[in-house]
Amino acid sequence: MANLKRVISIVTVFSILLTGGTVLAAPQQDAPQQQVQLTQQPIISWESLLKTCVDWLKNKPKGEGNYHIKIALVYNDKNGEAGYAEGSLDIKELLIGKPPASNQAKYTYLSGKVTLYESKDRWGEGLNQQYPFDPKKTEDLEVEINTGTGVIKIGGSTITKPGYAYGVAFGFEQKSVKPKYYVIELDKIFVPIPH
Predict the structure, then answer these.
(1) With 60 as the cut, is the pLDDT of residue 40 above it?
(2) CA 95 to chain CA centroid, nearest Å
């Protein structure tokens, strides 16, 4: 049920961004206990959000426990197909020698895997395959986000200049024929170690 609410939320933002609509403030539902707000101040850019995530993962402000960044994304393409994926990201640092501090972000990535569900994969009873997003037909994709440039790689798709609004990144993959349009959300997740 929580995943369905997340999909509806992301798809709503996706629709607003595509239509250029205006959003009025809506009441927020209570977040799960393990989910942490990204910041007290509004984040105004994709790069700022990425820096906030990396700093949080490195500094571990809640003490001992498991820290990761949850990623949820949806995409749509010109064929009317849609996809939903979720997974987790951690820091991956590529250090060739010791980079200067001013360029260190270019060597830092948020990296991990997502499980992809696609609308073209149908399921149901017998010959009645009416439901999209078959949970038995998923695909694992590698995700890598360069925290210095903001470039997002999802499987074979690359988004070089993502936009950012209403707490999500969005953009077309760099492909000339029928590119997919992505909407991506990141959340900090902390799970304390039981004592």
Answers:
(1) no
(2) 25
